[in-house]
Every structure is written in structure tokens, then in C-alpha cells.
Amino acid sequence: MGDYLVLNPALDQELEDVRTRNIPGPPDIGQHLENWIVKGSHYTIKKLTSHNQIGWEILHIIARFVDGTPVGANGDWKHLAGLLGLDIHDIIRIENFSNIKGATLEVLSQFALQRNASVSELLKALHTMERQDILLAISSKLEVLLNASPTSNQQDLSRAEQLRTSPSNQLTDTDSEMDSGMEVSITGEGDPENLQSVPLGSSIPSVANHKASENKQSCGKKKLTKTVLLTFTQDGYDLAKNVAFQIRSLNLGIGVLILEENRDELEFCSESIYRWYQEVDYVIPIITEGYLWQIAPRTAGTNEDSIQTEPTCLDARYARLIYVMMLEEYQRNGCLNYRVRPIESDLLGKQTHYLLRSPIFSFRKTVNQVGKLASILAQAKSRTLIR
Questions:
Q1: pTM of the model
Q2: How distant, in Å, are the alpha carbons of 84, 105, 179, 266, 268 from that of 110?
Q3: Cα–Cα dist 63/171, whole Å
Q4: pLDDT tens sequence across 59-83
Q5: Which residue, among 209, 300, 136, 242, has the nearest Cα to 258 in the 3D structure?
Q6: Which InterPro entries did the record assign (predicted)?
Q7: Which end of the chain is more exposed for a tag (fewer CB within 10 A), N or C?
């Protein structure tokens, strides 16, 4: 082979040209990484998914790359979970029960629950894992996201307040899609003792359509000091929207939490339901025939044929879980009901069901008494202890 190269100087020169040619490789993102980490320290994972569609795109890119890495290889999802500070029990749970969205998004969901879960910490973990491929893939979106955002929490709060109170701020299709109701917790509206992370969304159509008129009256709007969680099934969806609208319209300082209005947050971080349940002041079950069936299926007193389809709203899917949490709380409190204040549908009429004799349903109000119930809750002493 050596003799062949000597006898063919033209070929030898061509190979030398290839060796010395300046072939562009992947860009060096090391010089940008430090700047991203500094700016990302003020950007929480929760805010990343609530303010901009690009935040979701970044997380899904990370998940696609990490999920594509074989478990046991460098930079797999377990490596990421460990660097993000997840407990070994959380890692085992994710390994055994991760759902269709994949293990990496479950890891990021659990990480988002941590107190200082910032974009900066996530970038440091990816750098430690030597996942330059991921950093390169999200680099352009990170530049857009971080360069467009303020570098301090105070600037961000001021900007959010200006956008919220501006009369010319019209709700677009993109805003409607991304409005998960989390802005209240981010901008700090509400009593921090009671409303730590609860999204008090007002994204139901009847409220969103009156956004401009509400902005004009914002100076006289009462500060939110309490919040209630509505829990219901599919057949109570319209009734729940009506109840939420009544409570919000009374301007008593009560925020209303409906899970369906916060679908993005729950789909990303399903554990949020446990945190929200602990943080709300009251839970209001909307008791309908479907609700009774959902919390006690296959009972003799319930018509099983009345519900055959899979519920589409998140509230219906979580109804039984919330019911179980209400029962557990009632037992922990020595059989005292502090927070559950049900509303009974008029369609039930005089129907009897053994669950209606439950102590947690003993404070039932009718639909016509929503205003009275809201007034009582508004005047009640604020809860200082999460039971």
C-alpha cells in the first residue's frame, strides 16, 4: 500500500487535502452554557411549563433523547433522576409504574415539585451526564426562552402585572391553549399562607369572554384569601362550571380550582393533585348520580348502565381519588369534618343512597344555596393548619 501511494502522488495529495481540510463540526456550546445556567437560576420548571409553549417543547426534546438511551448506559433516565436529587423510592416507583408519557417526564414531574427546581439545575445535570447532544438540540429554544425573559423575579412579576392589567391585552388562541391557571401562584395574588401553589384558574369561557370588563373593575376586586376545590364527574360538569361562575362572580375573595382548567399542569405533574388538595381551604363535591356511581361502583343502589363511557374531563377521573382522600382526612381528624361542603344536584330529587348518609356529606347544600355557602366560607376563619 505504501508503494502504491509513492507511485501515485496525486492520490497521496488528495488524501492530505482531506486531512487538512477544515470540516465544520458541531458548535461549541460550552461558552453559552454558563450564561444559560445563570439566567436559568431564576426560571423554575413550573414556570417553564406555564408561561410558554416553548418550555414544553424543551422538556419533550429532553425526554425523547433520554428515553432513547438504554437503561444502564451513560446518561439514562436513572442517571438523570439521581443528579436531580430524586429519592430512591421515587426512582423505584417510576421504574415500576411509569405511564405512557415515559420515565423521563415522570422524573421531570417529580423534580418540578422540589423547592428549588430550576432550569439551571436541569442544565447542570445534563452537562454532568455529558449529554452534549441534548444541550445542542435545545440550544436554539433555550436562547429564545432565556433571552426573552427577565433575569430577576422582580422584573418578571412587574411584567406579568402589566400584561394582566393592560386593557389592550386580548386573549388569543395560543393564550387559551397555554393558560393553565398557574399565573396566580406565580404573580403572588392571594394569601401565601393559604395559596402556595394552587392554580385559581379563571379560564372557563364565561369568564374569559369578560376579561376586558373585569380589568376595568380590577381596582375594586377583592384579594383572594381562600380557595375551594370542586370535585365532580362527567354528568356534573355543567353544574360545576355554573357553581364556579357564581362563586367567582360574588367577589368574596374565594378562588375556585377545577382540574380540567389545569390539564397541562396535571398531565405534566400528576402528583400536583396531592399538593393542591392539601393547600385548598375547602373541598366541594358536586353530588350527582354519576358521582355516587364513581365513588362506589357496582353497588346495588346504583344503576351501572348509567355510565358506560370513559370520562373525558380530568375531574371525573380524579373524583374517586379525592373522595378517598376526604375519607382519610376525616378519620385523621377524629371523625370531624373541617373542609368538605357538598352541593347536591337538583336532579337527584328524593333519591336515597347509602353514601348520602356519610358524615362528610352531612353539610349538603342545594344549587340555589351556592351564594349562601360562599358567604359562609368567605366569613370563616382562615385555615392555619393543613389537616
A1: 0.49
A2: 9, 9, 22, 12, 10
A3: 30
A4: 889 988 998 888 888 889 999 989 9
A5: 242
A6: DEATH-like_dom_sf, Death_dom
A7: N
